[in-house]
């Protein structure tokens, strides 16, 4: 989640696994990943979270879980409740049990069950509307379960078709209140009512993922033309370099679970 007031926000992160080079890959060719460099970049990302008022709670490294730095995929944390996911990649399912105790301190926990699959990276909350990417990772059974679990809290959950990207939030994120940054090649912007759409710059296909913390957007330094577009639109940016984790198909939202502490 994003957009909370400064001072009341927790960001759960996890140290980069020494096994990160064995990560799942769907759309990228495997490249060497420098673990030391990935850790330094991840620390700078945590520093940015702290600078924007988050209390960063870093979970210990999981040496055998290659993708475990991408904590976003393990849970959906709302003000009222948290839902533990069942990630679409079987290699990632053990990550959920590893995050659950940290979340249990803050929220009642609900769970997605087989045959449902759901990755947190596919879940975009816009007010009381929750859009879930029907991606290679999240299926219709996962969306139906999430809808049933969250209906009592007043959330409307709908599936959204994606194509060509890993997760829905590779294709769209909310970058300021009521403003969504979108790659229209990967998701139909018409699926999102009530938000203004800002398209990424051409040639920067991974540029739609930004992490909103209060009134600032944590944003990769890899997309200068889209960054310029955001700045012109009045969005305040805090740029970070996550180039090593980008080789693992990670982006800025993936590396934290951000929520109001109370
Ligand atoms: C994976 O394929 O699951 C990881 N290598 C990347 C996950 C990135 N997570 C995210 O976008 N929420």
Please explain how this structure is put together.
There is one protein chain. This protein is of the alpha/beta class and 262 residues long. It has 6 helices and 15 strands. It has helices spanning 35-51, 94-104, 140-150, 168-171, 224-232, 243-246, and strands spanning 9-14, 54-59, 75-77, 82-84, 109-111, 123-126, 129-134, 156-161, 172-176, 179-182, 196-199, 211-213, 216-220, 236-240, 257-260. The protein has a 3-stranded mixed beta sheet with strand order 2-1-15, with helices on one face. It has a 3-stranded mixed beta sheet with strand order 3-4-5, covered by helices on one side. A 3-stranded mixed beta sheet has the order 6-7-8, with helices on one face. Strand 6 and strand 7 (129-134) form a beta hairpin. The longest helix has 17 residues, at 35-51. Residues 1-7 have low confidence and may be disordered. The protein binds citrulline (CIR). Citrulline binds at residues 23-24, 26, 67, 70, 72-73, 89, 92, 121, 166-167, 248-251, 254.
């Amino acid at each position: 989640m994003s957009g909370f007031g400064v001072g009341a926000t927790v960001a759960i992160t996890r140290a980069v696994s020494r096994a990160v080079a064995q990560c799942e890959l769907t759309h990228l060719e495997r490249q060497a990943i420098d673990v030391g460099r990935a850790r330094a970049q991840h620390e700078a990302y945590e520093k940015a979270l702290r600078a924007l008022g988050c209390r960063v709670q870093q979970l210990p490294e999981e040496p055998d879980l290659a993708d475990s730095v991408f904590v976003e995929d393990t849970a959906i944390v709302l003000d009222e409740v948290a839902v533990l996911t069942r990630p679409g990649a079987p290699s990632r399912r053990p990550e959920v049990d590893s995050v659950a105790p940290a979340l249990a301190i803050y929220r009642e926990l609900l769970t997605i069950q087989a045959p449902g699959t759901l990755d947190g990276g596919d879940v975009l909350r816009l007010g009381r509307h929750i859009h879930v990417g029907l991606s290679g990772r999240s299926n219709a059974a996962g969306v139906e379960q999430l809808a049933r679990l969250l209906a009592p809290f007043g959330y409307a959950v709908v599936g959204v078709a994606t194509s060509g990207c890993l997760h829905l939030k590779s294709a769209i994120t909310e970058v300021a209140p009521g403003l969504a940054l979108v790659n229209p090649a990967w998701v139909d912007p018409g699926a999102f009512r009530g938000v203004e759409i800002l398209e990424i710059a051409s040639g920067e296909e991974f540029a739609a993922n930004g992490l909103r913390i209060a009134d600032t957007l944590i944003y990769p330094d890899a997309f200068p033309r889209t960054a310029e577009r955001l700045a012109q639109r009045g969005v305040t940016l805090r740029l970070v370099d996550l180039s090593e984790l980008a080789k693992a198909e990670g982006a800025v939202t993936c590396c934290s679970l951000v929520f109001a502490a109370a």
